[in-house]
Amino acid sequence: MVDARSPVRRLLLVGPPGAGKGTQAAFLSEALGTPAVSTGDMLRAAVAAGSELGLQVADLMKRGALVDDDTMARVVGGRLAAEDVREGFLLDGYPRTLRQAETLDGILGQLGLKLDAVLVLEVPEEELVTRALARSREDDKEEVIRHRLAVYREDTAPLVDFYRERGILRRIDGHQPIEKVTSALHSALSAEGTC
Ligand code: AMP
User: Fold this and answer.
1) I need a labelling partner for 100 at 20 to 30 A (CA). Which of 51, 92, 114, 120 fits?
2) Looking at domain 10-189, what is its CATH homologous superfamily?
3) pTM score of the predicted model
4) How much distance in Å is there from the Cα of 163 to the middle of ligand 1?
5) Per-domain residue ranges for the chain?
6) Mind listing the pLDDT tens digit for each residue in 19-61?
7) Is 96 a catalytic residue?
8) Per annotation, catalytic residue among 62, 135, 153, 180
9) Which one from 9, 10, 79, 148 is the annotated catalytic residue?
10) Whole-angstrom Cα distance, residue 119 to residue 21?
11) CA of 189 to the centre of ligand 1 (A)
């Protein structure tokens, strides 16, 4: 099991919508003692607060479309400059495009930081649709779900190759019970190699 002494402290969690990133991020961030930073949560909080950012992104989010890269760069740049993430963080929901991945390099470079590992949660698409329909929140209409998955496939999945080429990618089978996924994440973080 990884804990607060783990040398691997600056992490990305990547995976399609409904793969369980939020749940696993909460467990891992507790085990590692590092904050979980979820751009989806930050944007939802902005919408709930009715802030300028919230008003700007509310419609896009409802449709399952992506917020533009420049806006996201400001949101993430501000968050990662905060004191509480100096010693580590678990980023969930960002980057979602290759351009965002390059921006993240720039943000971290300016802070003198670099990513230690990128964890990819893999779940078959049909399973994700089934899970989302079972949850059936207001924004989980099948059409929106399928759109989110298509956006993932086209815009976000290329990040897997991007980070594989860097040698920091670790793939995890997310199509298993929650506790098994958690153990697989711990093993992936304890292991030396990458895949
Ligand atoms: P999530 O909870 O990560 O699925 O994010 C919910 C919604 O927030 C997404 O469907 C997007 O509309 C928006 N969002 C979150 N993170 C990003 C990002 N990195 N780039 C663009 N849009 C984002």
Assistant:
1) 51
2) P-loop containing nucleotide triphosphate hydrolases (3.40.50.300)
3) 0.92
4) 20
5) 10-189
6) 999 999 999 999 999 999 999 999 999 999 999 999 999 999 9
7) yes
8) 135
9) 148
10) 10
11) 25
